[in-house]
């Protein structure tokens, strides 16, 4: 059976999802499909009143359901049922995602959705296995550390992997005993809404997963500034992350996890398997047309093999079959919006004006939607716009180095430290360089996440604070209380 579908025949969830039911509102924003630019849906925007209602609903649901204080295995069971329903409805969720976003229908069911269901199961299994501890104190005392949920977590997600990001936020927060008010990106809300609906069908008490729709300035701001939120969990750009920190500082200090932008380097040493390196670099910048936080967009290569690697990359940087996200034959994603397409094009043009040489790409691609050609720029320096800015598109820069020290100096971005890749056959060098790379994740002789949910993800420097995934994400959704008893 083909996965292709007709986007005009798809019923989209309407309204915010609060307390287990939809709350339609007046449409205040128009959404355009990245695949063909068509205006296809309207979106209500939650103001402070509705955000307040969602937070109060979440609080009341926590209290009445006992979700945070129940036998933890009950949460485990409910989350497993939710993961099962997500998998069972993967085809429909994939359509809701593909219509709005840049994710391809051919990649969603076996990719994003299967991984999200598994991640939810990973966190479900932590609920009854992670606890506090007894600590060494004087013999006539008993000291312990107990852990508790925060209460209501305010979560905000970006548009580039909407289902995955919703899973990253909801899975650990719910497993750890919290309720959530989640604001998805205003561009890609539909699959998240349906996931929330499925949570209720799975037996997660209504009101524990609430979804408020709207933009960052209105809805996001009201959510992060709400004093009833115990913690903020955000994934998005560093600019928005900074604005959220300011808002939190102004409106009442609360803990936060911030997963922010990146400009990740991939270091290729002369002894590396060049074919493997070229495959990994090309594959990861073509994936989702480079709209990936950990996109390894800065290639740093030892000078003696630079020409060979550049040629191998040019040969591999082919867009594949262009088409809409809802066509199973499409291989290359559109750019999310006309605005983002303009931004990519203007950053590449600025790089060329600054002296960059184009080895391939640097052009919009024809199509009814928003497409940009895979691009490789050389002749750039550390201060070139294309090297400093997170372009968030299918654009690679290539710089050369002579020594390990030069490679590390080039790798060290002034702002970002999300991820890095490293290709070498020399194990000692790999370990030495890995230790010095200023990045929250380092991949060696590979690039990109695996299905090992145990590995946390998060940034150094302005790429973020705290971690998603792994045990860290579960613990980041609980706080500790120290208890000392005089016996
Ligand atoms: P964005 O920052 O523009 O928006 C992300 C979300 O934040 C959206 O829901 C938006 O409405 C909301 N928002 C924006 N301003 C806000 C504010 N002041 N207060 C509250 N909410 C606000 O990012 P985007 O364009 O949707 O996504 C792309 C960015 O996300 C890139 O920078 C990418 O690197 C980053 N990202 C990071 C990770 C990670 O794990 N580190 C993962 C995916 C994406």
TrEMBL record:
Active site positions, chain numbering: 259
Presence of keyword Oxidoreductase: yes
Family as reported in the entry's similarity comment: Belongs to the aldehyde dehydrogenase family.
Origin species: Frigidibacter mobilis
Record keywords: Oxidoreductase
UniProt signal peptide: none
Domain Aldehyde dehydrogenase: 29-483
Protein's UniProt keywords contain Zinc-finger: no
Name listed for the protein in its UniProt record: Aldehyde dehydrogenase protein
GO molecular function terms listed in the Swiss-Prot or TrEMBL record: oxidoreductase activity, acting on the aldehyde or oxo group of donors, NAD or NADP as acceptor
